[in-house]
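Retro notes, item 3 of 5
We never archived the inputs for the FE2/S2 (inorganic) cluster complex last cycle. Fixing that now. Sequence and ligand:
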Amino acid sequence: MKDDDELCICFHVSRRKVVQYIRVEKPSRVSQLSQCFGAGTGCGWCRPYLKQLMQQERPESLELPNAEAYASRRIEYRQQHP
Ligand code: FES
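Structure as it came back at the time:
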């Protein structure tokens, strides 16, 4: 996933915005990322990824699936969690 790809697809929040928020605000809970343009407050698909980023010393270096795979797995997730 590239910096400008959407990490929270529901609210169109890019990976770059999330990483910047984590660096500046240093949230201790995933729910605090809701202050970052609503990230994580929709379908819930991105929350495990938000948590992984928060747990990294250097969140910008975490390997994430490419945008296409990420989006298509979210579609499967949404079918299982209507
Ligand atoms: S993709 Fe982030 S809440 Fe749905």
